[in-house]
Please model this.
Amino acid sequence: MSALLSVEGLRIAYGQTPVVHGVDLDVPVGPYGVGLIGESGSGKTTIARTLVRLHRASAGSVTFDGRDVLALRGRDLARYRREVQIVFQDGDGALDPRMPVLAQVVEPLAVHRSVPRSARQERAASLLAEVGLPEEVMTHYRHQLSGGQRQRVLIARALALEPRLLILDEPTSALDVTVQDRVLALVERLREQRGLAYLLISHNLAVVDRLCETSVVLYGGVVMERGPTARVLTSPRHPYTRALRAAVPELGVQRIPLTRVSSGAPERARAASACAYVDRCPLAVARCRTEAPVLRPYDGREVACHRAEEADNLAVDGLATG
Amino acid sequence: MVKFLVGRLAQAVAVVFGVMVLTFLIARLVPGDPAIAYAGPKATPAELAAARRQFGLDDPPPQQLLRYLGGVLRGDWGTSLHTKAPVLDDLVRVVPTTLVLVTAAIVVAVLVGVPLGIFAARSQGRLGDVVAKVVAILSVSFPVFWLALLLQLLFFSRLGWFPVAGQYDPALDATSPLFTVVKVPLVDALLTGNWPVLLSGLHHLALPVATLAAYPVGACAMVTRAAMLDNLAEEHVRMVRALGFSERSVLTRFALRPSLSPILSIVALVFAYSLTNSFIVESVFNWPGLGSYAIDSIQSLDVPAILGVTLFVALIYVALNLLVDLCQAYVDPRVRS
Amino acid sequence: MIRIRDLRVEYGDRTVAHVPELDLEPGSVTGVAGESGSGKSQTALAVMGLSRYAGATVSGSITLDGEELLGKSERQWRQIRGRRVAMIMQSPRAALNPTMRLGTVFARTLRLHGVPRREVAARMSAALEEVVLSPAILGRYPHQVSGGQAQRFAIAIVSALRAKVVIADEPTSALDVTVQAEVIEVLRRLRDVHGTALMFISHDLAVIGELADAVIVMRRGQVVESGPTAQVLHDPQAAYTAELLAAVPVIGGRRTT
Model:
């Protein structure tokens, strides 16, 4: 089964500074969810923006349904934009404060002319109903919506063009926990009803666990671990994934930080050939500073770590300093 | 910081170069024959030809440009058609007078406008804010000539508190003659310790500066108020309040510093603006400076002089912006990166 | 240490927070759980005497070691804020003045509260060491440090001031999850080593479960439940508490796939 979206060796830079260093990932045809897990600075949002052509890649390839995404232009690019949609994290930033909700959902329909003018309002209204928004919200403006409602509007707008792939960038991070639950349930429902494929970007492991079959763990612009969610999140083999897992607050379980605390002391520069995680990894040895590990198969998934076999030994009491 | 400085300097040089090329091009576009303008309408063809040769008007444009640029860099900014003197000499003569006026006005503007803005921000929504805003808006709105005449009427005619003409009392030339150093009376008086002339100079400065400072005071006050309000709403202000700092400390130490950036920008803008808009004040109060010179040049279609003034103001602007950039970088570390 | 009785925070005639009873005991952490609009932040501001800056009025009683705080003048409040009751905020880097070095703010704050000049450096050093920060951080500006470092720095200030009561308003919500645990650990130390009374506000019940000894749950300005943490989280009495607990996503829990 060939992938719907295939990313190979993707490198992205901000000006002169490289932020993504050779990322590979695949999203199969839906219904399917791939989770891209990372914290701030991992490069996950940059990747998302590059996948929808809002940012330039410096190297690598992105293939969608056999087409070279990075080379698309004009009409082909417009067509790609119908098939791949993104839902941003910041509902406040992604919605126009001066347009009522219905108009914002109509907008993509009008731009792409995918639906005749007379049918647009009706289609937008049915989309808003599909995401569970009551009718009166249609005439509301951005400032009158709650966080959860804003997120739903963004999702409705993204669905307007019947995309085959949806990219969700931290869809629940800014939301209250009860609202999060409902938005995630919405994504589940849409997945079933539309056979949607999605790339879900989140730092929240539990959210990824709930919605994604495959997980890709990103740190410092490099993939650290990749494989079936059940394996990666329940028995992580990379020290960073283990640290992430150990850091997830769970009722009744006291967390132990498994990363070296950054004290702000002047750090020696990390060599370009070193592992991206070396400064915070409690298992780091000399080899990690000179030889960046490559993704290799291990225990039913792929790991980029020289000491993946010893990950089980990772148990540190209290805070270790670095 | 050094890298920042070097970068900004390089940019400044590039802008100045661009301005010089632009002024050259504009001069070439102006209709009329500079040779005729110089030699006069009754000149003979031989005189015209001589004038042409003198100004190199027969040479191809790129060569003329190079000569112009070379001249500017050497200090030859052309010859004024209405004073018949080198433009640069004219500028050196008139600029200091205006500079004194404008600098004094800007200093007053900052000393009055910034506290006014802080006061408005502190009393936001209440009477104090409303009063401050009204004062600021009024001072920006006064037409300069109207204000000049009003001040003259009130403080000279009616009250006789302040003089209205000249830079200092001419009678003093007999009693305490001024030894000229930089040819600017006030500065010379300060440098030579000539107190009578200095006091008289300040006395004469009062009304023109009051007139010229009106707009800058309003602008500074409004910008200060806006920047302070923005910063007062920030989390870091709540933090220092929570740490126990007094409201006065909050206003003057913690909220003012990040507000300085926009204030500095507006000060530079207003300074450059005032340099050429001082001509009404110069006219009314008889302070012959850059503004008057510019008006005279325009009225007599004196192209070299007009270009000279343009180039000079552009240079001042570039220098000011560079200075402001440096100050902003000093005050706000985020600008440096 | 701090006793809150019948506290009401109002905007005009709208009550945004009503807390009938809440105690902050030395050496213990009291959690205040709730979603947005629950009134938890308003409660925090009231305890700091900062409500008036948000345009709200406060009534009821807040006593600190028996001394009534509501009704104190602004000057009296300034003696209390920072020195006896201190606050840590949600966005750590936004809570620091962007144009000042961290060291400047730290030193000035210590001097403000009467620490003699010759003692300032030592106190800063000791406090930074406790929160695992290098003294090199004092020369930096907020935009040059990470969120976790900035938050630990804020805790260092509070610790150096020896405040007996610390109000932490969503201190970990804006931080990466691997960094959260670092900050929680530092707060834990404040409680255990310094005997500080900590009020920990969060929308994340699991985080509260980790650190708090007792918890109150707020919804739309009202307290719906209170009690020892273990009891409230494992045997909630209020329907809303149960709803909050059920909504917390858990790895290995509900799965789509």
About this structure: DSSP finds 16 helices and no strands in chain B. Chains B and A do not touch (no CB pair under 8 Å). The first helix of chain B runs from residue 2 to 29. Residues 78 and 87 of chain B are 6 Å apart (CA to CA).
